[in-house]
Amino acid sequence: MRFDDRERAAYRTDGYILRPRVFTAAELAPLRATVEEVIAQVIERASRPDGGPDFMLADGHRMQFSSRTAIQWEWREGSREVRLIEPFTHLHPRFAQLWEDRRFVEPFLDALGVDAVSPYTCKLNLKRPREGSEFPWHQDYTYWYAFAPQTAHEIATAILFLDDATAANGAIRVMPGSHHRGPARRDRHEPTAFLADSARIDVSHEVLIDAPAGSMLLFPSLLLHRSSPNTSGQQRRAMLLSFQPAGRPRQSELTWRPELVNELL
Q1: How far is CA 34 from CA 28, 37, 86, 89, 212, in A?
Q2: Rounded distance, CA 121 to CA 249, Å?
Q3: How many other C-beta atoms lie within 10 A of the C-beta of residue 78?
Q4: CATH of the domain at 53
């Protein structure tokens, strides 16, 4: 599961590696079933009178804390679809064991250049048919800087695609080599100041990650990426596990300080 020479060179130069069909169809079926089971439970609990506090972000997106996770509801007014939850692996043993899966763990020994890694955070990303919304250009670094400004650059992510990812159902698009340029200029007109300034990005160089179900995308926190809306009738579900050098606290143990992002403007 470690990087071979070609992958090591590509990760260093382009800032991402796509490994097709790392998980088999037989492995994906129970994962997808568990996702739907867990999401149904999360929605049911969040809908109770004591389901947990909700609030509106500065950009108009609705969040709620319930089931020891942060739920981001779909952006469309009145929607009861979940856009993402973070973290999620504590919600089912089948998810929790992914942190020990060699297919997740071993590539990050090379990606981070360390002898051992540990979990940072995890996210279950859902783009439901014809409702899954876009996510503009950004770097994970910016969000993690608000938790761990000294080490945000030493975190990397693996995305496991549970469904085929295509242009029609909201596939991820990356900007090769952008991780070499450090923190991207922020969009000063965006209310939360976490998104990159798209006016400074040459989209002609973006790469669409068209990947079959079971594929895994690995990338560092400084890589610019975005995703388009799901305009199809197909699901686009994905699991994101983020790793860091061993011995550091998880994101859930840190304090969220969004004001720190102003240092990056």
Answers
A1: 10, 5, 16, 11, 20
A2: 10
A3: 6
A4: 2.60.120.620
- pLDDT for 58: 66
The pLDDT, as a whole number, for residue 190 is 74
As a dihedral over the C-alpha atoms of residue 127, residue 128, residue 131, residue 135, rounded to 10 degrees, the angle is 0
Q: Which two tokens stand for residue 152?
A: 């945000």
Q: Considering the entire predicted model, what is its pTM?
A: 0.96
Query: Which helix H or strand E contains 59, and what residues bound it?
Result: none
Counting the structural domains of the chain, the total is 1
3 state DSSP class of 234: coil
Q: What is the mean pLDDT of each run of 10 residues along the chain (265 residues)?
A: 97 98 98 98 95 81 92 83 96 98 98 98 97 94 97 98 97 98 86 86 96 98 97 97 98 95 85
Q: Token pair of 9, please? A: 């060179």
**What is the spatial distance between Cα 44 and Cα 217, in angstroms, rounded to a whole number?**
31
Distances (CA, A) of 151 to 66, 141, 154, 186: 28, 9, 5, 19
- Which string of DSSP letters, residue by residue, matches 151-191? TGGG-EEEEEESS-B-TTTT-EEE-TTGGGG-SPPB-TTST
How many residues in total does the chain contain?
265
C-alpha span between 148 and 144 (Å, rounded): 6
The tokens describing 159, both together, are 């995305």
Buried/exposed 118-151: b ≥16 CB within 10 Å, e otherwise? bbbbbbbbbbbeebbbebebbbbbbbbbbbbeeb
